[in-house]
Protein backbone atom coordinates (compact mmCIF):
# COMPACT_ATOMS: atom_id res chain seq x y z
CA UNK A 1 0.00 0.00 0.00
CA UNK A 2 1.43 3.39 -1.02
CA UNK A 3 1.55 6.14 1.55
CA UNK A 4 0.86 9.60 0.22
CA UNK A 5 1.66 12.83 1.93
CA UNK A 6 -1.62 14.65 1.51
CA UNK A 7 -2.26 17.80 3.48
CA UNK A 8 -5.72 19.04 4.08
CA UNK A 9 -6.43 22.47 2.64
CA UNK A 10 -7.05 24.08 5.99
CA UNK A 11 -6.95 27.83 6.62
CA UNK A 12 -3.64 27.31 8.43
CA UNK A 13 -2.09 25.65 5.39
CA UNK A 14 -3.41 28.31 3.04
CA UNK A 15 -1.96 31.02 5.26
CA UNK A 16 1.47 29.36 5.18
CA UNK A 17 1.42 29.20 1.41
CA UNK A 18 0.36 32.83 1.21
CA UNK A 19 3.17 33.93 3.52
CA UNK A 20 5.72 32.01 1.48
CA UNK A 21 4.68 33.67 -1.76
CA UNK A 22 4.73 37.12 -0.14
CA UNK A 23 8.15 36.62 1.40
CA UNK A 24 10.39 39.45 0.25
CA UNK A 25 13.27 38.57 -2.01
CA UNK A 26 16.58 38.66 -0.24
CA UNK A 27 19.10 40.93 -1.86
CA UNK A 28 22.75 40.05 -1.50
CA UNK A 29 23.40 43.74 -0.93
CA UNK A 30 20.88 46.13 0.53
CA UNK A 31 22.60 49.23 1.82
CA UNK A 32 20.58 52.27 2.87
CA UNK A 33 21.93 55.79 2.66
CA UNK A 34 20.47 59.02 4.04
CA UNK A 35 21.80 62.45 3.07
CA UNK A 36 21.04 64.87 5.90
CA UNK A 37 22.11 67.80 3.70
CA UNK A 38 19.12 67.10 1.43
CA UNK A 39 16.63 66.16 4.17
CA UNK A 40 13.83 68.66 4.81
CA UNK A 41 12.43 66.87 7.85
CA UNK A 42 9.11 65.76 6.34
CA UNK A 43 9.23 62.51 8.31
CA UNK A 44 7.86 60.11 5.69
CA UNK A 45 10.83 57.81 6.29
CA UNK A 46 10.12 57.38 10.00
CA UNK A 47 6.45 56.72 9.27
CA UNK A 48 7.24 54.00 6.74
CA UNK A 49 10.24 52.32 8.33
CA UNK A 50 10.62 53.34 11.99
CA UNK A 51 13.09 50.52 12.63
CA UNK A 52 15.45 51.99 10.05
CA UNK A 53 14.88 55.76 10.22
CA UNK A 54 14.41 58.29 12.98
CA UNK A 55 14.52 62.07 13.15
CA UNK A 56 16.73 64.05 15.46
CA UNK A 57 14.77 65.99 18.08
CA UNK A 58 16.44 69.35 17.35
CA UNK A 59 16.17 69.84 13.57
CA UNK A 60 13.93 66.93 12.62
CA UNK A 61 16.49 65.69 10.13
CA UNK A 62 16.75 62.03 9.29
CA UNK A 63 18.87 59.73 11.46
CA UNK A 64 19.77 56.41 9.87
CA UNK A 65 19.34 53.75 12.55
CA UNK A 66 20.14 50.69 10.46
CA UNK A 67 21.93 50.90 7.09
CA UNK A 68 21.66 47.12 6.63
CA UNK A 69 18.05 46.28 7.53
CA UNK A 70 16.53 42.81 7.66
CA UNK A 71 14.93 41.48 4.43
CA UNK A 72 11.44 41.82 5.87
CA UNK A 73 12.06 45.57 6.17
CA UNK A 74 13.21 46.07 2.58
CA UNK A 75 9.77 46.84 1.20
CA UNK A 76 9.15 49.52 3.83
CA UNK A 77 12.55 51.05 3.11
CA UNK A 78 11.85 51.11 -0.63
CA UNK A 79 8.56 52.88 0.12
CA UNK A 80 10.37 55.40 2.31
CA UNK A 81 12.89 56.09 -0.45
CA UNK A 82 10.11 56.52 -3.01
CA UNK A 83 8.06 58.82 -0.77
CA UNK A 84 10.88 61.03 0.51
CA UNK A 85 10.05 64.48 -0.92
CA UNK A 86 13.65 65.69 -0.98
CA UNK A 87 15.42 62.70 -2.52
CA UNK A 88 17.56 62.35 0.57
CA UNK A 89 17.29 58.56 0.74
CA UNK A 90 18.73 55.88 -1.47
CA UNK A 91 19.33 52.15 -1.48
CA UNK A 92 22.18 50.26 -3.06
CA UNK A 93 21.02 46.77 -3.85
CA UNK A 94 22.10 43.85 -5.91
S1 LIG B 1 11.36 61.49 4.32
FE1 LIG B 1 13.20 62.40 3.41
S2 LIG B 1 13.01 64.58 3.84
FE2 LIG B 1 11.59 63.51 5.20
S3 LIG B 1 12.74 63.19 7.11
FE3 LIG B 1 12.99 61.37 5.85
S4 LIG B 1 14.88 61.75 4.72
FE4 LIG B 1 14.20 63.70 5.51
Overview in brief:
By secondary structure, this protein is an alpha+beta fold. Helix content is 29%, strand content 17%. The termini are far apart.
Instruction: Give the SSE string.
Output: HEHEEHE
CATH topology: Alpha-Beta Plaits
Q: Extract low-pLDDT stretches.
A: 1-21
Kindly, what is the distance between the CA atoms of the first and last residues, rounded to a whole number of angstroms? Answer: 49 Å
Report the strand count.
4
Function: Ferredoxins are iron-sulfur proteins that transfer electrons in a wide variety of metabolic reactions.
Biased composition (Polar residues): 1-18
Organism: Catenulispora yoronensis
Region (Disordered): 1-26
